Each structure stands twice: as structure tokens, then as C-alpha cells.
Amino acid sequence: MARSASPLGPVVSAAHLADGQMPALSEIEFALTVLHNAFQRWTVRCMAAAGVPGLAPVDILVLHASNHRDREKTLADICMMFNIEDTHVVAYAMKKLEGMKLISTGRRGKEKTVKVTKAGAEACRRYREVREGLLAPSVKGLSFDEEDMSHVAALMRTLSGQYDQAARAAASL
């Protein structure tokens, strides 16, 4: 798809990065930053509206992952799912959620496991209701093609691999 040239240039947060070989990459990075912050703010407020205030964005992700398909997950599973390198971040979230009785923890060999409790599943259900009532209709009203949205999500997952590979290379410099 051809881009229309804007007289102001690309919409970026760092013009010095957009001067390189791929200005569109800077546009993506800025859009991801803004989307990431909006998404985190949404998850926290949605969970509070669902009756569970005080959770951080990563806590909410861990809770939903623990509820996913009603299967026990390991700390490593959740870190891998969300591409979180620092396992302590997820371990802290698990401890917080366990203290709130939203998940229960166990062990599978040497690995810590988590499973959603009834209270945690109920919180996830209420979160879904708030999401379906507030976010889904407004996004649906934009008339985005769902197949196009799935392609964008696939592109974002593919780009995550490029950033991971570049991070490994940068770590070796």
C-alpha cells in the first residue's frame, strides 16, 4: 500500500530516528508506544470497573493467562507467552494475585505453577463484561475488517522477533 507523503513528515516521537533508512519503522514504534500505554491504562481501569482495583498491568495479564483455557501454567509458560525476560516481574505478580486469592500456586517438579481460582475466574468474567460493554462496540464501530486486524496482529508478532534478534545482537556489541 502506497503512503501519502505528509508535508509534515511521518508521525514520530524522535525525528532523528525517522531520518534513517526506514521512517515507517519510527512511525510503528511511536504508534506502539502510544498503543501500549493506552492499553495498559485500559486494562487497569477495566479491571477496577470489574471490581478488582489495585492491579498493575502485568498482574492483569498474569491473571488472564492463568484463566486461559482453564489449564495450569508454569512461571516459564507465562514468561514465554508474554516475552517477559525478567521472571521476577511475573513471580511478583503471581505472589500478589495469590495473596488476593485470585490464583492458587503449586508445583510441577521444580517449577512453580498457577491456576485461576473461582474468584479469579469471576474477576476475568466481569472484566470481559466491561470490555464487551465499553471497548468492543467502539472498536467495532470503526468498521475495521477483522481479517485485516488479524494480519496487523501477525505483523506485530513477527516484528517482535526482529526486535528480539536485534536486542541479542546489541547485547553482543
Total E-strand runs: 3
Mean pLDDT over all positions: 93
Give the SSE string: HHHEHHEEHH
Question: Number of helical segments?
Answer: 7
Approximate strand percentage:
5-15%
Regions with pLDDT < 50 over 5+ consecutive residues? none
Identify the overall geometry: globular
Radius of gyration: 19 Å
| Strand order in the sheet with the most strands | 1-3-2
| SS-derived structural category | mainly alpha
User: How is the main sheet built?
Assistant: 3 strands, antiparallel
Distance between the termini: 36 Å
What is the helix content? Answer: 55-70%
Which descriptors apply to this entry?
3-stranded antiparallel β-sheet; 173 residues; globular; mainly alpha; 7 helices
Task: Tell me what you see in this structure.
- The structure is a single chain.
- The chain is mostly helical and 173 residues long.
- 65% of the residues lie in helices and 8% in strands.
- It has seven helices and three strands; from the N terminus they run H-H-H-E-H-H-E-E-H-H.
- It has a three-stranded antiparallel β-sheet.
- Strand 2 and strand 3 form a beta hairpin.
- Helix 3 crosses helix 5.
- The radius of gyration is 19 Å and the shape is globular.
Topology summary:
Layout: H1 15-18, H2 23-49, H3 57-67, E1 73-74, H4 75-82, H5 87-99, E2 103-108, E3 111-116, H6 118-140, H7 146-171
Antiparallel strand pairs: 1-3, 2-3
Helix pairs in contact: 3-5
Task: Describe this structure in a few short sentences.
The chain has 173 residues and is mostly helical. The protein has helices at 15-18, 23-49, 57-67, 75-82, 87-99, 118-140, 146-171; strands spanning 73-74, 103-108, 111-116.
